[in-house]
Amino acid sequence: MAMTHRGAVATMLLVTLLWSIAGVVTRHLDSAASFELTFWRSAANAAALALLLGWQQGATPLWRAIRHGGRTMWFSGLCWTVMFTSFMVALTLTTVANVLITMSLAPLFTAVIARAVLGQRLPGRTWAAIVVAGAGVAWMYGEQIGGGSRRDLIGTLVALSVPLAAATMWTLLQHNTRGRPEQRVDMTPAVLIGAALSALLTLPLAWPFQASASDVGWLTLLGVVQLAIPCVLAVAAGRVLRAPEAALLGLLEIVFGVAWTWLGTQESPTPAVLGGGALVLGALVANEAMALRRTPAVPA
């Protein structure tokens, strides 16, 4: 999938918009518990990816790609497993605010890992955008942070695995694109690996099932629209964007999530949410505007 830098930025905007619908959709669930929610969502994600990638590549080539993908693909698949699973587990242990604050560390972790592993040097504008966007997210949810109980601490530590896994995944994508053409592998099946492993891991914890037919329908929608499609697009965009830049754009998921909740439920955003969201958007727009002015629109 040939893509310019501008196309990759636009793709990530669509990706974060789709990722962000999880919160407002789960508000309409009747009886699905957290692990059951994760199982049905991951299972639908895996089924949709198997059909999509099997149709694109053929069942035999897809299976061959998974078998011979090598360590890079399987490590990436494990990263997707952690992201698909740990987010929901953390929500059962601590507040949404604690989880989102922890997830906002993804751009910083990505910048550090990419610098250490790939030797990527980031311009000052990107470091500034990371700091400002992180401050914006902290402002949005700082008032909601819990009292620091032992359960909150465990939940925050679980949530910490999400930005670490995301940072590792983006760095692996960049590492793969830097290899020799004959050494590069299609990293898209890694998303399928992650979804399948997430479903298998949460199945014992989700049993016995309590979800209604309506719940299963909503969770299937999430698995296809909120995970399968945007994750495939994210892999495509990650071949073009620098790893920290992709992670920074991913913070828009939090801002969009607030907007969806505002429009789809009775919840109204507080002044802190509006002000913090404005900081995040401003940092992203400024960083990408400067990047687009300096980056030629050459297909990658």
TrEMBL record:
GO cellular component, one term: membrane
Protein name: DMT family transporter
InterPro entries in UniProt: EamA_dom (IPR000620), EmrE-like (IPR037185)
Residues passing through the membrane, by range: 38-55, 75-93, 99-118, 125-141, 153-173, 185-206, 218-237, 246-263, 269-286
Source species, domain of life: Bacteria
UniProt cross-references to Pfam families, sorted A to Z: EamA
Coiled-coil intervals: none
Protein source organism: Aquincola agrisoli
Keywords: Membrane, Transmembrane, Transmembrane helix
Domain EamA: 9-141, 154-285
Biological classification of the source: Bacteria, Pseudomonadati, Pseudomonadota, Betaproteobacteria, Burkholderiales
